[in-house]
Amino acid sequence: MESMLTADFINKLFDAELPEPSHWESLYPPRNLPDGAIVTRFAPSPTGFLHTGGVYVATLGKNLAHHSGGSYFIRIEDTDQAREVAGSREQFARAFKYFHIESDENDANSKWGPYEQSKRELLYHTYARELLRTGHAYPCFCTREELAQMTEEQTALKIQTGYYGTWARCRNLSQAEVSSRLQSGKPYTIRFRSPDGPPNRVEFVDLIRGRIEHQDNMNDVVLLKSSDQTPRLPTYHFAHVVDDTLMRVNVVLRGEEWISSVPLHLQLFKALDFLPIPYAHIAPLMKFDGASRRKLSKRKDNEADVAYYIESGYPAGAVLHYLRGLANSRFAEMTFEESASAALSLKECGVAGPIFDLVKLESISREFIAQLPIEDALESLLTWAREYDSELAAILSSNLPLARRIFANERNPAVQRKDLAKWNEFRAAYGLYFAELFSPVSDPSDPRFAPVEAEMVVKLAKGFADSYRHEDTKEAWFEQIRSLASANGFAPTAGQYKKNPENFAGSIGHVSNAIRILLTGLTTSPDLFLVAQNLGEQEVLRRVRALT
RNA sequence: GGCGCAUUGGUGUAGUUGGUUAACACGCUGCCCUCUCAAGGCAGAGAUCACGGGUUCGAGUCCCGUAUGCGCUACCA
After folding, report:
1. In Å, what is the CA distance from A212 to each residue of A232, A238, A263, A276?
2. pTM of the entire structure?
3. Checking CA distances to A352, which of A334, A431, A544, A546 falls within 20 to 30 Å?
4. Cβ–Cβ contacts within 10 Å for residue A167, how many?
5. Can you tell me the ipTM of this complex?
6. How far is the CA of A458 from the C1' of B41 (A)?
7. Is the CB of A212 under 7 A from strand B?
């Protein structure tokens, strides 16, 4: 294809110092990696918080790269400066760290950077100039208004929208026409000259889905954005082809929404004389909205923002385990240790968008926390609390033995509990053990005692306290509750009460409940014997005697 | 409108080259345990594999069509 513009004319469109392709290609040589090593990247845009789907794709990519002896990196796609949200990068960094998806490579330790697209401006210019030289691109002076107008007309005519055929008004401008518009100072974009003629069908292989057939691209898409902007940045399509080639990526893992753009990308690789890079398109995470399902949305769903998990205190390991299982159910059947170290296979990944189910995540997370070694659990809890509940952090730090005992209780097979799905539940579940978080119940007519009358509550409390022995077996400890129940006309076992409720003032359950409320301030709690053990004799008596 | 991707119990999935009663986990229900709530144990409900055609002795598994959902059709990614 011959350019309608002379080489000299094209050169003047760019800085005289702009390097030739050969410069970049020697600067970014192929990576020296073993056969089968996968180099992949996660490429988020700093236009808001990090999406759960982002962690999903990133952790899969990292798994693929690391298990193949390759490399995983993060490239910030900040080519849309208008939509950039301040603080996104910091949020990203926090999330990457939390979910162990930090980049292997960065500007300091790798020669394939920089890792932010806004810093790669010259690269795109070099290749845009190259495309101009080979006639695969041309300057376009259409304004946004003109473009919008065209789209409107096309919609009214019920024909395909886009910049193609006779609608591609700048496609065949002569050098003289281009020159005069430049003279008058009109800003311009650089557009891709898509292949001539009616579009054919293209076929390509997706690493997850296999063969895909699609109508070929016929749109002259924008490659380089308007000349009146600084820096002058590329669109996603152009940046992807240039960057992933020169950063020597060999598997492009990205969301399914890109499948429709593959034909265009393939044309770009060809026009630039680059080798196409294999794609793996991942199905997006979904969510229920009434009866229908839709993509998990940043705007509507708070669980779409990874900050939700960090702030609530879901352990990263639990979230990652769930995410891996969503991508490939083989992982869901594994233990946490196995799934964390097993290699993912793209072919085994699901092709339908899975529903992201918070209930299932909670169940997994509960199991995960219950399996965490005591010191790890404590460390994780403390790390969370220091950030989001400093009062709790301080209390825990000054009661470490108690905190350890609580986790030990949880892990004791005889009394195993799985009360915690996330760290922000610690307070409600176990705050009762800490004097600082517990306010004694002093009102005997507190509704929580119902149906036991206030007078009886006082009697039970007094009776319990006066004869209290801090027994160290469960049976002996509960024996005191039984005698307390009998002494006050309550059935000493639930069974007896169930049989003949009319013979008793109530069941042992009522008595236990009264003591429970006094000891814990709660109507549901762990085993009362356990509570007493953790509290210690002094504190048990103090709490029971708080009744006035 | 055009194009693409998807569709197995409430949810996520497993179902090897088509072959008997469609499997697992979560959730749900009941029972047991029991001082409450969990946890645990046991049992159970719940899928004519979106629908309609076809190929075949036989289809969740192959082919065609339809529907529905999702996505792309931007100087957003």
Report:
1. 34, 22, 11, 15
2. 0.89
3. A334
4. 19
5. 0.89
6. 38
7. yes
